[in-house]
Design brief:
The protein is 35% helix and 26% strand. The chain is an alpha+beta fold and 343 residues long. Among the domains are: 93 residues, ApbE-like superfamily (T-fold), CATH 1.10.3980.10; 120 residues, T-fold (Roll), CATH 3.10.520.10. An eight-stranded antiparallel beta sheet has the order 1-2-6-7-10-13-14-15, with helices on both faces. Strands 3-5-4 form a three-stranded antiparallel beta sheet, with helices on one face. A hairpin with a 2-residue loop joins β1 and β2. α2 packs antiparallel against α7, α7 packs antiparallel against α8 and α8 packs antiparallel against α9.
Length: 343
């Protein structure tokens, strides 16, 4: 049942992305640039690359190469890929450090920064809790008992991650500890693809990994890209539109991965301190210069809740955002209020 639901949602997402792609193409000034786009199921999400380039740039091979890079990075950073860096780190927890790819080391290092910035609410050692709840396993289950959660909570502490920059190694000091980079690696990969495309001369386009979006330049008419934010309780409609130019925008919501049990919704964004799904907001959207920042902060702010989450967003340089609370009220940072279109 769960598998059918996932494939149905993926099918609908592909259709929506296709419609959006057509709409963008018809709206922009075509000039002498050609549109190239490709969509695949990677990183357990819909990954789409759309670029507009002139005849001097071979668009199709460039987009194919971009997806080759995505697949290569997934093999390095996904805990679900055997012998990936993260899989090796988890397998060697409590035993010995693991030498990793410099890109993996960088992502984990950044995760510690966002862990500190969010008072520990962003924690990449959350994997044991995710496993307990069944998120990422593809198996439906009932919510775990309180005693089960209490047994696992001591394994969740990002501050225990040991990084050795000289040897480029990572060590989890206790057996059964485990990393999950799902809240940060996708953003990093989007950044890598965007920067690769820019390095190849692409000035207009978007990289979209299931809602982790990075805009390359502007639309061809010189105006910002207009990003619609999904209504967290009416996914066929949008709750706001945010313009972005050469920026990243990410939305995290309780509607992304969840299951229902006895009339209650249990989503995958867990509070590392309680082991329970964070329960103060419905969605968080973050705009930042890069996707690794927007991705990490969207999760952190979701767990922090409205008051502390807004304080964190307002404290970060070049970062803006919107929080939708349980009453569907929108809380918008000062720098975004004059730009956002609330629906």
């Amino acid at each position: 049942m769960a598998r059918r639901k996932i494939f149905f949602e993926i099918f609908i997402a592909i259709i929506i992305l296709s419609i959006i792609g057509v709409a963008v193409y018809n709206y922009i000034d075509r000039d002498n640039l050609e549109r190239y786009s490709r969509t695949e199921l990677i990183l357990d999400t819909i990954f789409e690359v759309t670029i507009f380039v002139d005849e001097e740039i071979e668009g199709d091979p460039l987009v194919r190469e971009a997806f080759d890079k995505v697949r290569a990075l997934e093999k390095v950073m996904s805990r679900f890929v055997t012998n990936s860096d993260v899989d090796k780190i988890n397998q060697q927890a409590g035993k010995e450090p693991v030498e990793v790819d410099p890109r993996t080391f960088y992502v984990i290092e950044k995760s510690l920064y966002f862990g500190e910035a969010s008072q520990g609410k962003f924690d990449v050692t959350i994997a044991p809790l995710l496993n307990l709840w069944g998120f990422g396993t593809g198996e439906e289950r009932e919510p775990p008992e309180g005693e089960e959660i209490e047994e696992v909570l001591p394994l969740v502490d990002y501050q225990e991650i040991e990084l050795d920059e000289e040897n480029m190694s990572v060590f989890l000091p206790r057996e059964e500890m485990a990393l999950d980079l799902g809240g940060i690696a996708k953003g990093y990969i989007v950044d890598e693809i965007a920067e690769f495309l820019e390095g190849e001369g692409v000035e207009h386009g978007t990289v979209n990994a299931g809602g982790d979006i990075r805009a390359l330049g502007t639309r061809l008419d010189g105006n910002p890209w207009r990003i619609g934010i999904t209504h967290p309780r009416d996914r066929e409609n949008i709750i706001a539109v945010i313009p972005v130019t050469q920026e990243a925008i990410v939305t995290s919501g309780d509607y992304e991965r969840y299951f229902n049990h006895e009339g209650e919704r249990y989503h995958h964004i867990l509070d590392p301190d309680t082991g329970q799904p964070a329960g103060e907001v419905l969605s968080v959207t973050v705009v930042a210069p890069d996707c690794i920042t927007a991705d990490s902060l969207s999760t952190a702010v979701f767990v922090l809740g409205v008051e502390e989450g807004m304080a964190l967003l307002e404290s970060m340089s070049q970062v803006e955002g919107m929080i939708v609370d349980l009453q569907e009220e929108k809380h918008v940072t000062r720098g975004l209020k004059d730009l956002i279109e609330i629906r």
